[in-house]
Amino acid sequence: xxxxxxxxxxxxxxxxxxxxYYDELSESEKxxxxxxxxxxxxxxxxxxxxxxxxxxxxTFSPLSAMELSEIEANKExxxxxxxxxxxxxxxxxxxxxxxxxxxxxxxxPKGMYDIGLTKPVYIFQRIIENLLDTVKQADGSYIRxxxxxxxxxxxxxxxxxxxxxxxxxxxxxVTFFKQEMAPxxxxxxxxxxxxKGRISTSPNGNAGWFSSMxxxxxxxxxxxxxxxxxxxxxxxxxxxxxxxxxxxxxxxSSNVExxxxxxxxxxxxxxxxxxxxxxxxxxxxxxxxxSQEMMDAKDAKGDPAxxxxxxxxxxxxxxxxxxIASENLPLHVVEKKIGHIxxxxxEVKPESPNGCKFxxxxxxxxxxxxxxxxxxxxxxxxxxxxxxxxxxxxVESARELCRxxxxxL
Length: 409
Ligand code: UTP
Hints:
Blueprint: H1 3-12, H2 27-39, E1 60-61, H3 68-73, H4 75-87, E2 91-96, H5 123-137, E3 144-149, H6 154-163, E4 174-178, E5 181-183, E6 193-195, E7 198-199, E8 201-203, H7 209-215, H8 219-224, E9 229-234, H9 245-253, E10 258-264, E11 274-278, E12 281-285, H10 292-296, E13 308-317, H11 318-324, E14 332-336, E15 340-341, E16 347-348, E17 355-359, H12 362-368, E18 372-376, H13 379-382, H14 395-404
Parallel strand pairs: 2-3, 2-9, 3-4, 10-18
Antiparallel strand pairs: 1-11, 5-8, 6-7, 9-13, 10-13, 11-12, 14-17, 15-16
Helix pairs in contact: 4-9
Uridine 5'-triphosphate (UTP) binds at residues 96-104, 110, 148, 179, 203-206, 234-236, 359, 387.
């Protein structure tokens, strides 16, 4: 794209400020900026006006979960099926590590955060240790691990794994890929500039993982290795059970397109997304969308009908993913802290949210599928998310949960 073309594209979307420092840039910076303008989809910025507003939703109804008692009664059977499926090489794992972890506020990828007290214990290390538990259960069958990064944290992530010898995992079983980026803007939809020659961007949400895998040509590996199930999970849950054989077995034998690990809610109004049906298809209703009537609704046993919150650990059927790969996912506008340069060209690192990022979310992928098994897990054993430095879902609370589970820090 040449300068004139860039100018007219920016004008169309009211983003002329992007070229404010153009004349000060070196030739290579000029080329890079023109390329970025060419690649950027500015049309998404008008979604800023939807900040704080949810999209149109359908009619919700309950979706019952496989509860702990049923899992316990079938544990041996499910685990055997799961172990066989893993040993046959049909299960892969995808670590979603493309996020910016802005709430934790570290400049490094979140997985590099050290939660140790007496020795270093990195989040990535905890994830690999958890995966190795499964490998052990599957008699040493290593699971293919894909790690999604973004252009912002890819090099740091890859180098960190290398420096630490992949925390004991075989390097040839780990494949990194980068997710797509989206522009970030102020509340009026004007893109921020992260440098004089670069528009601020951020990863486009955690639903980008499958399309980014396809873009990176990784379906070759999926097909060559005969991978039929993919367990995706967040980087920040340090008690995460990955490709847990019992969960694999329950999902495979339930004949569903996706299994979702869920925890029983602490209170009817707990701030978690809840599994349900929406217009008859699996879906997740956000806590702020739950009506009083839904909170009060009871199932046949007299328990709350909308009682299971998702923890971002899903076992997807690979064929089902390929079927929905070409469908468009809705865009969510989220309020975040966005680093940028101010009108004088000085760098700003905001302390509080200052604008909008645009993300596609995994929960919308669930709604594209025909069937889902919510699978109950014990919160205290499997859910220790690290979102913040202190308080709720923090390094502190995760440390406490690790301690309760006998993990030395
Ligand atoms: P969060 O929604 O908690 O976002 O991600 P975040 O970016 O890590 O943290 P904040 O909100 O800025 O503090 C949940 C999971 O999804 C991944 C994250 O890495 C985390 O594992 N994720 C999120 C991606 O892989 N890509 C994204 O674009 C966003």
